Amino acid sequence: MYRTGDVTAKAVQDVTLDLRKGETLGLVGESGSGKSTLGLALMGLIQPPGYITSGEITFDGVDLRNMGRDDLRRLRGSKIAMIFQDPMTSLNPVKKIGDHFIEYIRAHDADASEQKARSIAEKALADLGIPASRVDDYPHQFSGGMRQRVMVGLALALGPSLIIADEPTTALDVIVEAQILKLLRDLKAKYSLSLLLITHNMGIVAEMADRVAVMYAGKIAEVAPTTKIFEDPKHPYTKALLDSIPNIQVEDKVLNTIPGSPPSLTDPPPGCPFHPRCPYAFERCRAEVPESVVTGTDSEAACFLLEGVVARHSSK
Amino acid sequence: MIMILLSIVFIIMRVLPGNPVLLRFEKNADPALIASFTHQLGLDRPLYVQYVDYLWGLLHGNFGTSMAGDFEPVGPQILSRFPATLELTFYAFIVAVVVGVFLGAFGARKGGVPDEGVKVFGILIYAFPVFFLGMILQLVFGIWIHLLPVSGRLGAGVMPTGLSIDGVQYQTGIYTLDSLLSGNVTEFIDAVRHLILPATALGLVISGVFVRMTRANMMETMRSDFVTAARARGLNEKTVVYSYALRNAMLPIVTIMGLQFAILLSGAILTETEFSILGLGTYLIDRVNFRDYTAVQGTVVFLALLISSVSLFVDILYAYLDPRVRL
Amino acid sequence: MKRNNSRQQPVSLMGTLLSPLVGKGHGRPLMLVGIGITLFITLMSITAPFISPHDPTLIGFGPPDSPPTAQYPFGTDQYGRDLLSRTIWGGRFILLVAVTAVLICMAVGLPIGLVSAYNGGNLDRTVALVMDSIYAFPSLVLAIMIISVFGVSIINESLAIAVIYIPTYFRVVRSQVLAIKEMPYVDAAKSVGASGPAILLKYILPNVISSIVVIATVNFADSILTTAGLDFVGLGLSVTLPDWGIDLTYGRQLLPTGAWWTIFFSGLMILLAALGFSLISEGYAERTNPKLR
User: Fold this and answer.
1) Count of the separate structural domains present in chain C
2) Hey, are the CB atoms on C267 and B132 less than 8 Å from each other?
3) Domains (range + CATH), chain B
4) Distance from CA of B4 to the nearest CA of C (A)
5) Domain ranges of chain A
6) Which mean pLDDT values do the consecutive 10-residue runs of chain B (327 residues) have?
7) Record: contact B234-A78, CB cut-off 8 A
8) Which pTM was predicted?
């Protein structure tokens, strides 16, 4: 929840997600759907005026919400790491790239000598395809793509098991984007990582994710394995999202868009958050909030339309 | 830009009033006396000659000739009074920056009521007339509680000393420095005690600007991506606040330090008057009261040059601090 | 017609000016307190002849060096003058100079800034250079310099202070004009034949107004402090007339005896006057610039 002045915006509500070891989970949604907030919340990085009201965040069997501040801090960067959207502003402009690494390494291992930290830094840069000689350069001397690679390198330097990538390629051009995505894939395989990939780009999701979770207005609309979600989306919102992607092969004269705009997070409408824009909405949608319904293996969606389907399935 | 400043001073002091000698004397003074004065000071030459002479003289450190009886050169007089002002301004500046930055950062981090308090403090302290604040400090700490001296730079009986080389004493005129160089602890303590009240008064008032700027910059910087990214890497809060947020928030503040120095000088004039410190400020006022216009001109020019140098220094300092500018 | 960012569309002048006064949110209490203080002081100064209990210049009126009593609530100075009366009267010169200075500044700085920036070119750059040079100069020194040569009077003091602050107006106005000048709707206006002055008045001026308010109020506060400062060092108007700055000079002489009342009230008044305007400025700025939240 974010509170500014005397107005409260519920950024994320009633979200239950699990991320399996070694998988890439794509978290998709429009701007304002709450996906970035979710990512930050997972690491305990929600700052005032935001705060977490309730819930559990379980990592490796431990509830992060019960952890002390110091323990949580040690966790960040070493077990869970995050990559941010804008490489221009994610690095400290007055620190050398090498110093970013060194400081970070020594924050987690007080005994590490400067030499040792420096060599880890140089190796990390090498892994990323950046010449080690650039360790003493400043962020503004790198291109956007290289900076993002540095971010990836920083995230991996201490061998975390989970990486949260918040729109890692949105600020980059398509060619660099492909490089970064390939880098992520390679490193994920090499180090057996789990990846939470937050994005609004369905194309990236199709390419990278094992499972996809779709968010809308702070709630989870649908979760399913990637192929299933693209072939047979269950939630009206997912369907509309996929429909709106222009397809070169089909001759569409008009772009399909979703009419209306995302709901206000301070004053959400009652019932299902999507109902004002949903072509299939009926009376119940306006009154009640749909619960998530299992629609297959590893799949679920929150829509009243599906309850009939499930009922039919289970009555078989 | 220095040229423009110097020219402006010249225009105001020489061109506009015509012959400053006339202003100095009463209306019914002896014309012969006026003529001889004017001639002695070279004020009867054509203006452009005077202008060139003025600039040329400055290049050689000649700040003019005093209009007071003896026609002494102004330069040495300025130099004898300058150290006091320099010392006061220096310590006041330190007070201003320390108080300003820490309060500003504190407010930005805490938020809520303490933050509002810091904000109001910033506005309030800057609106304070520095001489009034000085008086209050004098009253409280000097008179009601006999803790600190209220005027001058050294107590009675304490002599300024300097660095001795081969038996010759070299003094900078900056008592805190000289006493350290000569190892005279009594003098040092005395000088410091005399500096506490005026430097605090002046420093506090100037800190207002730093408080507000630091606070605003910090609030913005704390929200920036690289700060969140640093936290995400598990760096401890202290590092994040100082090494990441504050370090970057301070950069724009350095750029205004040259300007703040000018404001400091203005305040120093008032502070010197209040605390009876014999510095350039009191010298300036003194010369104005004596209608010694050439001396006034010389002093103002000196200050202009001083400010230009400080601005230049600040620019260089900024380039050192911000790697983006260097290359 | 495309919808522009509404902040930069031509809007009514008075609307832009007064809108921060209404509505909830940050900065409003600051502003209102500031307005309150300012009004109080202004009223006090204007009605001085009517509300002052005694003649402030009468020497020997009361017992000299007397601390506050029922009869003389603010005490008396070393000449036996009633300090309450002197305090009530003391702001007039300072306020008058401040008002005059600000008016001169606006009358000179605004047009020069608008025209110079709008026309651009080498002339603009030269003027900007001159302005920057003055801007960097210590205000009090400049004022002292001017006053020393021209003598002391309300006009001279106002002019001296105005000269100091004109560059500030100039710079702010200029930077805004330079930004707005390139906006598409200005081109649109030109294409239908709007003349330079018309564009300036209708489009650019309203956007510049809120900045001007902030600067003017800060200008006021600074003028008050500078004038009081000049009075304090003896370069003020008259040594006998009641004035907060001069009272501080007198009061100072009694300080070693611990006579706090001689300086306290005058100094407090200067502080309040400057504070009032500063608060208005800060509050207004906060309302019109969301980043400062």
Assistant:
1) 1
2) yes
3) 74-326 (1.10.3720.10)
4) 7
5) 233-316
6) 73 66 65 71 71 74 69 79 90 93 86 84 90 89 80 74 69 77 80 88 92 88 84 79 83 85 91 89 87 82 86 86 75
7) yes
8) 0.80
